[in-house]
Amino acid sequence: MNHFFSEFIKYRFLIHELVVRDIKKKYRRSFLGILWSILNPLLMMCVTAMVFSTLFRFSVGNYPLYLLIGQVMFTFFSESTSFAMSSIIENSSLIKKVYIPKYLFPLSRVTSSLVNFLFTIPALAVIILATGQPVHWQMISLVIPLIFLFFFCLGVGLLLATMAVYFRDMFHLYGVLITLLNYATPIFYPADIVPEEYSWLMVYNPLFYFVKAFRNSLYDGVFPDALTLLQCGGLAVAAMIIGIIVFKRKENHFILYV
To answer: Which of 137, 167, 214, 223 is the most buried (most CB within 10 A)?
Structure first.
């Protein structure tokens, strides 16, 4: 662990440059640039809210905010893990030339996605104010589940990056899995409408607990309950342990396959 932190301090400027590169790459040749981080979730929320509030008429108060919280959280997870999965392969030329701790590439991808998530905070603030949602100081407790989600995404990203080096079909399979998770997570529908025989989809879906914690903070205006935070923290720790172990065991052979 001391070696890990010493490497992190040593290469902190490289991590910064990789994060900046990823953000610039995402918005390259875009007229509005980072404003899309605010506009995109707002536009997607407007379209989805109109469709689902009209067709299904869910009994959810302030549905636009309920929907947007789920969307931005899921987007962070989907984007960060997908980018981390391709990080080793995309930086293969650099890996072959100089020694760089390889975990820095998935780490920088997840960090850049975190920065993009932070850019969406103004969009959430706009919806909170525009819909008259009461503002509570407990909303700042969002930081806690966000930290847990960051490490959960990093652990999953390390695992996916390793698998993608040896099994390129992971890119296609993960796209299917993300779609399934999108529908299996109560993002645009309330969890209480799920039939009891399908309740296991919530129990075994890790994103369910993160969505719940995020909505506790921003939608309910309360501090996430201890059990939910314990579940989110446990998932983050488990993902990190598995991701680090698998990544460390295989990283010395990456150069042979990229």
So the answer is: 214
Global confidence as pTM: 0.89
Give me the number of domains the chain comprises: 1
7 class by beta-carbon count within 10 Å (0-12 exposed, 13-18 middle, 19+ buried): middle
Distance set, CA 62 to CA 58, 73, 163 (Å): 11, 17, 41
Number of neighbours of residue 166 by Cβ within 10 angstroms: 12
3-state secondary structure of 124: helix
Summarize pLDDT for 103-123 with one digit per residue, the tens: 999 999 999 999 888 888 888
Kindly report the number of other CB atoms within 10 A of residue 4's CB atom: 12
Residue-number span of the structural domain to which 214 is assigned = 2-256
- Summarize pLDDT for 157-175 with one digit per residue, the tens: 999 999 999 988 899 999 9
- Block residue for tokens 């809210």: 49
Rg (CA), the chain: 19
